Amino acid sequence: MKKRYLIAANWKMHPAPLVLRRDASPSPYHPRSDVDVVVFPSLLDVRECIQAQIITGAQYACAKECGAHTGDVCMSQIAAAGCTYVLCGHSERRKDHDETNDDIALQVISALEHNLHPMLCIGETEEEREAGKAKDVVAAQLSTIPLESNITIAYEPVWAIGTGKTASPEQAEEMHKYIRSLLPEDTRESTRILYGGSMKPENAKELLEQPNIDGGLIGGASLKPEQFAEIVRIATEL
Ligand code: PGA
After folding, report:
1. Quick check: CB of 10 below 6 Å from ligand 1?
2. Torsion sign over Cα 173, 7, 223, 48
3. Catalytic residue among 92, 99, 156, 173, which?
4. Which of 111, 131, 182, 210: disulfide with 116, CB 3.0–4.6 Å?
């Protein structure tokens, strides 16, 4: 069966690409019939993306319900704003905000309770890979998560994020296959496992054509509409 790819843009703490401001519809970020496209803008740009009819997710939301938590935004708020996805456990949040595997599990559960689709990010650091612990780290990151639920997983080796270094297709496939083997039988085939970490037009084809890679979570290249469009085009042709 032909795979239906999911190509996601993570704009991190960057302004939305100007193409959106020019009311260019359809842009490479807009929904299409042959590939799923999702955008994770900064919270300030969420509304604009939703108004432009882009499938939009938040880069983070708090697992707690609405209440006295200054500076935070909860799952029910992003759902009410029109988000359909939420990233959980991006490595930059694990590092900058000391998010633990237990914290991230609470986010995933809260997202599901609010009918949001969690995109769980996992991946090892360079030291962990060099120490031969990459699979153990990923298994531990998955161990707290309700994997029988409808979630998407993004395998993002930390050493490949924003560094220009990409996992080789063989390294990525080996890990994706391992991740799939850890999923319960009911969701093993249906769960999409995306690759993230310096995906760009030059390497997208060889990564996306691996049997266990179902799409990409793209940072740097997603801010450049022509590069993102090219990755989406590659996915449509596989
Ligand atoms: P990158 O970021 O494509 O810039 O490496 C990916 C991510 O952090 O999701």
Report:
1. yes
2. negative
3. 156
4. 111
Residue 162 has pLDDT above 90, yes or no: no
Mean pLDDT along residues 233-238: 96
Chain-wide mean pLDDT for the chain?
95
Nearest CA to ligand 1 atom 7: 219
Let me know if 226 is a catalytic residue: no
Ligand 1 nearest-atom number relative to CA 220:
4
Tell me the residue type at 27.
S
Predicted confidence at residue 24, as pLDDT, reads 63
Is any ligand 1 atom within 6 A of the Cβ of residue 156? yes
For the beta carbon of residue 77, count every other beta carbon within 10 angstroms: 17
**Cα(161)–Cα(90) distance, rounded to whole angstroms?**
11
Residue 64: CB atoms within 10 Å: 14
pTM of the model: 0.95
